[in-house]
Amino acid sequence: MKQHLLIFVTLFAAFFVCSCSTTRMGGSGAKPHEMVDIYTGSRNQLDLIIATEPITYTIDVSTAEGKTKLQNLSIREAEGLAIREAVMLNRCAKLVDPQFTHLTKGKRVLRVTVYGFPAKYRNQN
User: Fold this and answer.
1) Distance between the two ends of the chain, CA-based, in angstroms?
2) Stated pTM of the model
3) How far apart are CA 12 and CA 17, in angstroms?
4) What is the pLDDT of residues 63-90, one digit of tens each?
5) Secondary structure of residue 44 in the 3-state scheme
6) Whole-angstrom distance, CA of residue 33 vs CA of residue 118
């Protein structure tokens, strides 16, 4: 009888210890490369002025610069690069309704063209 009681207590203790969860540390949530927006004013004070004339910007591997820029990029990465460079070149805040065309060979991107309307903020401090 004592032996059965001892086995029962041992199994109960083992079950009790094993059923406790372990705290695991790790990160999740926001991506570390994303910028945090720290604007504290009212967004209603800024007016987005969209140009009536669209722009196009192309990155092509036929140029040495384009070949370097498009090397090992996916289509989505090439689109992002084209938008960033179009915005910088046209000195605007964003590109409204961007449309893309691609030329690829297998997985390799040979050319990406972005078409859209440049926009600037009015009343921006």
Assistant:
1) 84
2) 0.61
3) 9
4) 999 999 999 999 999 999 999 999 999 9
5) helix
6) 25
